[in-house]
Amino acid sequence: MSTTPREVDGQVTTTPRYDYPATGYYPAESGDGWLTFAGIMLVFGGFLTLLDGIVALSRSSFYVANAHYVFSDLNTWGWILVVAGVIAVTAGFAVFSGSQWARWSGIVVAAGQALAQLMMIQAYPFWSLCVFAIDLLVIYALAAWGGRRNSLET
Questions:
Q1: What is the model's pTM?
Q2: In angstroms, rounded to a whole number, what is the distance separating the alpha carbons of residues 46 and 88?
Q3: Which residues fall within 8 angstroms of residue 68, CB to CB, at 6 or more apart?
Q4: Which of 69, 98, 105, 121 could join 128 via S-S bond, C-beta 3.0 to 4.6 A?
């Protein structure tokens, strides 16, 4: 966007003029809301997964009785979820840096966290589906809007 004085129809004006390049990129501000959302939700989803893992380790009666897991037992899945939650929180804070490695690591971590939640769905179905939906929105936000932050900066 340019606000430098220019002449339009013989009159000098300083109204904003959007100078988009011909390559089809839009201003970086258009995706900033989605990127902020992705970072916050990745941290939030990581905390939920961490909480899920801590509950699985400490009080297994909270979950559905006699649930069958993909492999091992509830205690093992508790440790898997604790590790996945810590990694997701770290990746969520890294997304705020705006770098491409943080974007791609956020996508990979959100996808891994979503798969871990789907494998844990036998124990607590509604909770797992809610965190899975959050992870899908994070993947969308980082994949669709993450690359535009640096597109106009030179």
A1: 0.69
A2: 5
A3: 122
A4: 121
